[in-house]
Design goal:
Mean pLDDT: 94
Number of domains: 2
CATH superfamily of the largest domain: Phosphoenolpyruvate-binding domains
Number of strands: 8
CATH topology of the largest domain: TIM Barrel
Order of helices and strands: HEHEHHEHEHEHEHEEHHH
CATH class of the largest domain: Alpha Beta
Low-confidence stretches: 280-287
Bound molecules: 3-methyl-2-oxobutanoic acid
Largest sheet: 8 strands, parallel, barrel
């Protein structure tokens, strides 16, 4: 699949073609998403929780984001990759925001960046866009300031908050955002924003009446322990499969059933490594 463009996403909105975006933080998961022809991949700062084991996304640094974006790019050279701006990467000054967004593009190989926050972030988004970098907005529950929002809970439930989020969406669009993530808002509010916006609205916990859906890859495949918010549907139980595999390996080793002859190198059989497996010759001879 060739890399999609922002123009494709705009056209999909007009055609009411629904699409998905998934997170990825490393080369192997990026390879999976490329094979499944996922059009847009987000290297989210959720890597703080999902990969680095932090309690929140706040400790994630620009270095983390650049390193993981570059890994995703190596795993999927043809995907449209969005790199997340971590906590404070865009809040200190517009100059710093442009510089950090530029790092995600230049060093991380991303096609675009994502930035959390409403109206007050619009001027920063405009500056980044003017610098030639496409920006995806993020409204509703914005995990970087979850404490200010009263925790990880639905946003926009009362009419005043709902109006503010709708106005923020308009401000981000006017500032040049090419798409907006809407996280944990009531279905009706998301539907109204989606109807009024000319850019794609990507929902997570925002109901079905949006242009696209995003989920964290590890939640979708069942590799997030007991963490399962209401808006997640698990399409696999990968964690259980992995535990089973590791248990089976331990059992085989304990029973002397691993390795077999065909998995060993004995005397004259010690020929070249078998099909498709990357093998370092030095390791073969020194081992
Ligand atoms: O960091 C992230 O993964 C995100 C998505 C869940 C929207 O922001």
């Amino acid at each position: 699949m060739s890399r999609i463009t922002i123009q494709d996403l705009k056209r999909w909105k007009q055609e009411a073609h629904r699409w998905v975006c998934l997170t990825s933080y490393d080369a192997p998961s990026a390879r999976v998403l490329a094979a499944a022809e996922v059009p847009v991949v987000l290297v989210g700062d959720s890597l703080g929780n999902v990969i680095l084991g932090h309690e929140s996304t706040v400790p994630v640094t620009m270095e983390d984001m650049v390193r993981h974006a570059a890994a995703v790019r190596r795993g999927a050279p043809d995907l449209f990759v969005v790199g997340d701006m971590p906590f404070l990467a865009a809040q200190i000054s517009d100059e710093e925001a442009v510089r950090n967004a530029g790092r995600l593009i230049q060093q991380g190989g991303a096609d675009a960046v994502k930035l959390e926050g409403g109206g007050p972030r619009a001027a920063t988004i405009r500056r980044i866009v003017e610098a030639g970098i496409p920006v995806m907005g993020h409204l509703g529950l914005t995990p970087q300031n979850a404490t200010q929002l009263g925790g990880h809970k639905v946003q926009g439930s009362d009419p005043r908050d709902a109006r503010r989020i709708a106005e923020d969406a308009q401000a981000l669009e006017e500032a040049g955002a090419f798409a907006i993530v809407l996280e944990c808002v009531p279905t009706q509010l998301a539907a109204t924003i989606t109807r009024n916006a000319t850019v794609p609205i990507i929902g997570i916990g925002a109901g079905e009446d949006v242009d696209a859906q995003i989920l964290v890859f590890h939640d979708l495949i069942g590799w997030s322990g007991s963490f399962k918010p209401r808006f997640v549907r698990r399409y696999a139980q990968v964690e259980e499969t992995m535990i089973e595999a590791v248990r089976s390996f331990q059992e085989d080793v304990a029973a002397g059933a691993f390795p077999s002859d065909s998995e060993s190198f004995r005397g004259s059989q010690a020929g070249p490594p078998s099909d498709g497996i990357h093998f370092d010759e030095e390791r073969q001879t020194s081992g």
